[in-house]
Write a structure and sequence with these properties.
Number of domains: 2
Order of helices and strands: HHHHHHHHHHHHHHHH
Strand content: under 5%
Largest sheet: none
Shape: globular
Distance between the termini: 29 Å
């Protein structure tokens, strides 16, 4: 028996809204950390958190492939009603997460040396940031394991459970931050300690509950993990290949936004600050669009596992319509309230004026971004990661060419148009491989079969 539920508009909305709220809970934690230290700490602690959090954001973002690849493999196994493979996929991914987490701990001195060679701060801030790093790095295995558990829940379509775990993580983290940094006066080190305790608590609780739930699908006398299946060479290699593709794609995406920021700095501090504010608004819009992209990851993978081209097309169509409508609302809303929102985010007149004059371009970017989000989600769900990697290379080349052609004549406006061209190029590059994806459904390939060449 295979997965057969049709992804209607209502089903997609019911799956998407918990993911949107869970995504929005992440920056809330950063705001609370800043508020706690801003009231009970000093400027050294505040600077240490800024540097330390930046390092961990970059390190952990590099391992986002653990979440994405797990979603695809689990969704395909669920679609085929192969729950032994669901458990095996979880086992493989958790083993990789723990090994990578332990490796990060072992390499912490090297990571610190590289990070603080690239980042600048006063001697006092750097010393406090090193103390923050030295504590928080011990949460690495738990953090990477949470990525895997998130991927499993998204792949299974358990978005409400994902929301509950995210709220538990952030809620406990906030309480511990207040206790360690505020009540006990441990400053930035207390913030790091609270984060580590919250991460390990969440990983253990979520892992226990997920394993208990998956155990209900075990046959009588069947082991939870079939170790020969977990260590199946072909599936291990497929996981490693998929993870490498996604990691490279993510690093190229990070590079493109870093390049945008670096180019912004060429136009002066006002432009740099204004573009930073506008990128925060773009990131806010991404919380909503990611909700639909995560849902289409799960639904596409299930359709592939269930060998249902019809379910796949319905999921792709309905989620994309909802994503397009959401992008339209967000883009239009930004055009209407940009000046007011920017006024709340900064009181610097020059930055306000610059950000307001460029805000319509950020709105256009949001309007044009949903196809790339959706196609990313589809390709993650069906494990078309090689195609994602190639698409990211092609689109980055287009972006760099657009920058070269537009910035010299049109300045910062040309830089924004290059970003808009880039997000459209991301979607266009992925669309090249869409016929191969449809052929995969036509051939009736299941999650464990060999890939159709792109």
């Amino acid at each position: 028996m295979v997965h057969s539920s049709k992804p209607s508009f209502l089903r997609i909305l019911n799956l998407a809204w918990p993911i949107i709220i869970a995504n929005a809970a992440v920056p809330l934690l950063g705001l609370v950390d800043t508020a706690v230290i801003g009231n009970v700490g000093d400027i050294t602690d505040l600077g240490a958190i800024a540097l330390g959090a930046l390092i961990f954001s970059f390190v952990y973002w590099s391992f986002g492939f653990l979440r994405m690849s797990t979603t695809g493999f689990v969704a395909q196994a669920v679609g085929a009603s192969d729950y032994a493979e669901v458990r095996a996929s979880l086992g493989r991914a958790l083993l990789m997460a723990m090994l990578l987490g332990v490796l990060l701990i072992c390499l912490q001195l090297l990571i610190q040396w590289v990070a603080f060679s690239l980042l600048s701060g006063s001697a006092e801030v750097e010393a406090a940031a090193r103390a923050y790093f030295s504590v928080r790095i011990w949460g690495a295995p738990a953090t990477l394991s949470i990525f895997v558990l998130m991927g499993l829940l998204i792949g299974m379509g358990k978005s409400r459970q994902l929301l509950l775990f995210q709220l538990f993580l952030n809620g406990l983290n906030i309480l511990l931050d207040i206790w360690f940094a505020g009540v006990l006066g441990l400053g930035a080190t207390g913030i790091a300690l609270g984060t580590v305790v919250a991460e390990w608590s969440t990983a253990l609780l979520a892992g226990y509950l997920v394993i208990r739930q998956l155990r209900t699908n075990c046959e009588a006398g069947e082991a939870f993990w079939s170790w020969p299946r977990v260590f199946n060479r072909a599936r291990m290699m497929r996981m490693l290949s998929s993870n490498f593709d996604i990691m490279l794609r993510t690093l190229l995406l990070v590079f493109s936004f870093a390049y945008f920021t670096n180019q912004s700095a060429r136009f002066g501090d006002d432009v740099l600050a204004a573009n930073h504010i506008l990128l925060q608004l773009v990131s806010f819009a991404a919380f909503f669009l990611d909700g639909f992209a995560f849902v289409v990851e799960s639904e596409s993978g299930k359709a592939l596992g269930g060998k249902s081209r019809e379910a796949f097309l319905i999921a792709a169509r309905n989620s994309t319509i909802l994503a397009a409508g959401t992008a339209l609302l967000l883009g239009t809303g930004l055009m209407l309230v940009a000046e007011m929102v920017i006024g709340v985010l900064t009181d610097l007149d020059a930055v306000r004026a610059m950000a307001s004059s460029l805000s319509w371009l950020a709105a256009v970017y949001i309007l044009c971004s949903f196809p790339a989000f959706q196609l990313d989600g589809i390709y993650i769900g069906v494990s078309f990661t090689r195609e994602m990697r190639q698409g990211s290379i092609y689109s980055l080349l287009v972006f760099l060419l657009a920058c070269w052609l537009l910035i010299e004549d049109f300045g910062v406006v040309g830089l924004w148009w290059a970003m808009i061209v880039y997000v459209l190029a991301r979607a266009s590059a992925l669309l090249i491989y869409f016929p191969a994806l449809l052929r995969r459904f036509d051939a009736g390939l299941s999650a464990g079969c060999d890939r159709i060449p792109g």
